[in-house]
Design goal:
Elements (H helix, E strand, L loop, with lengths): L3 E6 L8 H9 L30 E11 L2 E10 L8 H5 L5 E3 L6 E3 L9 H5 L6 E3 L4 E3 L5 H4 L6 H5 L5 E5 H17 L6 E3 L9 E5 L16 H9 L7 H14 L8 E4 L4 E4 L5 E3 L9 H7 L11
Bound molecules: iron/sulfur cluster (SF4) (3 copies).
Length: 310
């Protein structure tokens, strides 16, 4: 199997959030209420950022228009793991809980190994991995490797009606991105650009950004931080000078900024969402269907118990 990639063409996105919801359904992740603290912020972006139970959000970025006929432009963005070829989250993880899938190139997770040190959060130039306070592990997009292995596209891609999202071999997605970029340039979008071809050694989420990199909320020139590089260099000598390594890791962690902790947690047993601040249940679980969307779909795959195609 060739390396895979998700293609996101912002010019086709309608900002409908369906991809966000599909990610929640497939991965059996709750949608706690109360995260959008400023209800009248004038944005449809909800929740405002990734959190321990949200692996993908659509961002809504408004800026001054670049065409005479458009004085205001609304640029949708996809905020999730970019599946870097040179993935600092994977190289810094001391437990092997984040790793690159050698077949697809996606950077996926094995949360049974996660020791919750959160070094991956600090190493990621896109501020993606978040701590899930209920599971006590990191949570981030897995690239839906479990679906790809079954011959399916990622859940977010499958649900996108205007085909802003596509999935396939990475080299084919790059060719398709070039075609779409050309169309945008012909229509006068001179700031349109492809993102992900080279960044971080090549991303496995390729984006066609209609209004330019920053307009869609993407990071210009992402790099591995010097602290992460230093920590990786120190790894081989851990056994000899473990104290130095611990100091290095502590320094790295101390330097990390911007990490946001969740204010609500999800109780998987009762399916209730609980406020960490007040201790109150902010959303009661319905408890009607204990089978996840993922299990329902897997049950019905060809060759699986209960499937139509046996
Ligand atoms: S690839 Fe899968 S885990 Fe990642 S954002 Fe899409 S649905 Fe969520
Ligand atoms: S975007 Fe962040 S979490 Fe995803 S592979 Fe790159 S470094 Fe890791
Ligand atoms: S499902 Fe498609 S159109 Fe809707 S927000 Fe996601 S990428 Fe955009």
């Amino acid at each position: 199997m060739a390396e895979k990639a998700i293609l996101f063409d912002t010019s086709r996105c309608t900002g409908c959030h369906a991809c966000q919801i599909a990610c929640k359904c497939w991965n059996n992740l709750p949608s706690p209420t109360g995260l959008n603290e400023n209800k009248f912020s004038g944005t449809h972006q909800n929740p405002p950022d990734l959190n321990g139970q949200t692996r993908l959000i659509m961002t809504y970025n408004e800026s001054e228009g670049t065409l005479p006929t458009k004085t205001v432009q609304w640029a949708f963005g996809r905020r999730s793991c970019q599946h870097c070829a040179d993935a600092p989250c994977a190289s810094i993880c001391p437990a092997g809980a984040i790793y690159k899938d050698v077949v697809t190139g996606m950077v996926t997770t094995d949360n049974s190994k996660c020791v919750a040190c959160q070094y991956c959060s600090t190493a990621c130039p896109f501020d993606v991995p978040r701590y899930d306070g209920v599971q006590g592990t990191i949570n981030k997009c897995t690239g839906c490797v479990d679906r790809i292995e079954q011959g399916m596209a990622p859940a977010c891609v499958t649900t996108c009606q205007p085909e802003a999202l596509a999935f396939g071999d990475r080299d084919e997605m790059l060719v398709e991105a070039e075609k779409r970029l050309e169309m945008l340039k012909q229509r006068g979008y001179e700031n349109a650009v492809i993102y992900g071809a080279e960044e971080m050694g090549g991303l496995h989420v390729i984006q066609v950004l209609k209004y330019g990199v920053e307009a869609h909320g993407q990071v210009a020139n992402p790099t591995v931080s010097p602290v992460t590089t230093l920590t990786n260099l120190m790894k081989p000598v851990t056994g000899v000078v473990s104290g130095v390594t611990v100091l290095g890791l502590a320094a790295m962690f101390g330097l990390a900024a911007g990490y946001k902790r969740d204010k609500v947690v999800y109780n998987a047993e009762t399916e209730d969402t609980i406020s960490l601040i007040t201790g109150d249940v902010v959303k009661h679980g319905d408890g009607q269907d204990t089978t996840s969307v993922k299990d329902h779909i897997l049950e019905n795959l060809p060759g699986k118990k209960g499937g139509d195609h046996e």
